[in-house]
Amino acid sequence: MDRNVWIRFVGEGINGVAFMMLMPFFALYLKDKVDSLVLVGIVMAIAPIASVFGTMIGGKMADFYGRKPIMVGSMVGNGIVMLGFVFFDTFWMFVVLSALLGFFNSLFHPAASAMVADVTAPEKRTEAFGLLRMGHNIGAATGPLLGASIIFVSKTIVFVIAAGTTLFYAAIVAFFIYETLPKQEKNDSAKQEEEKEKLPSPFKVLLQDRLLLLFVLTGVVISMSFSQTEGMLPLHFDNELKHIPETLNPFPYLMAFNGLLVVLFQFPISTWAGKKKIGSVMLLGAFLFGLGQIGIAWFPTFFYSQKSDFAIILIILLLVYAVYTLGEMIMSPVQMTFIANIAPEHLRGTYMGAAGLQWILGGAIGPLISGYLLDRSLGVVMFTMLGVGCMIAGVIYLLIDKMTNTTSAQKEQRQASM
């Protein structure tokens, strides 16, 4: 594995600590500062909206200016913005800071993903993305515990520490990671500007590459499932498990279990998946992911009808969540590998940015639908629909991979005949 990947593995752990120290307590911090929960919701909604712009320009900038400066600039911006939450405490400043946080955070991922693709062979990319995901989850497993212990002293200290760790990661990238943008012939400044103008926008890439567009649209269903499980699942438990106290909501235990499984098994699973056909792996991962969603939908209703004890509820839900997490671990790194493999070398950052739209769209659409359904105690319907949708998405992933292989074979035949 390339040195850059291992350095980023360490950095992702640091970054995971920073964000997961902050994010579980972000809403509580805002609640103390603004007048209503409606305003808290507005502030938190601004970040994913602003991330659309960062995702769109981040990939294109990474393809022209290089991966490293965009990654460093993104993290420096994030660190400064986190400190801003300590010094400003008005609603409108929180809106501005939230928008900047979403923007800078979204700049990072297309450049970072393109860098991984630059330095790893196609057969090793799934393993590399899995390694980085494991690094992030090591941080994510410890971050909330650190945040919970610090927040009793002062909520502002969490922002200061999170900002410090983010700036430390920026320094690691700046001093230890080398630039990986594929080298081209040196041009004068006028020619460079001309080349920059020739780089297509992610929207144009989506319209031109039908396989990429189909992949992104399919991925919206997966993204909606992720966002609803991570954000709305505790509300589903509250609606359905009426016979247990709210303090015994199973959700925190499931999240901790998820992080532990990823840390322990993500890398070997990614190594295994990297040796298999991408389409078949995505089908398997999406099927298990969807099966876990269906279990999450129906078991709480069964538990309430049987008035099951909390211990029994937790044990069964942990088993269900293990299936869900297994699907997640199989599918997630391979999704990034697929994009890296179909992207032209000079457009890897742009393709990664375009692919990121699936997470933004799913994260924005999902809460609107789930809020309506959960308000009517229809969480069973919602999670069942998401589970079935994920299984269908797996079949589509398999078809997309076959279409990609067919297209590649046709290109090779045309080149051989010339």
Automatic annotation (TrEMBL):
Localization recorded for this chain is: Cell membrane
The Major facilitator superfamily (MFS) profile domain covers 1-405
Q: What stretches pass through the bilayer? A: 12-30, 36-58, 157-178, 211-231, 251-269, 281-304, 310-330, 351-374, 380-400
Reading the lineage from the top rank, the first entry is: Bacteria
Matching entries from Pfam families are given as: MFS_1
Q: Can the keyword Transport be found in this entry's annotation?
A: yes
Protein's membrane topology: Multi-pass membrane protein
Keywords of this entry: Cell membrane, Membrane, Transmembrane, Transmembrane helix, Transport
Under PROSITE patterns, the record lists:
MFS, SUGAR_TRANSPORT_1
User: What name has this protein been given in UniProt?
Assistant: MFS transporter
Q: Which organism is it from?
A: Bacillus spongiae
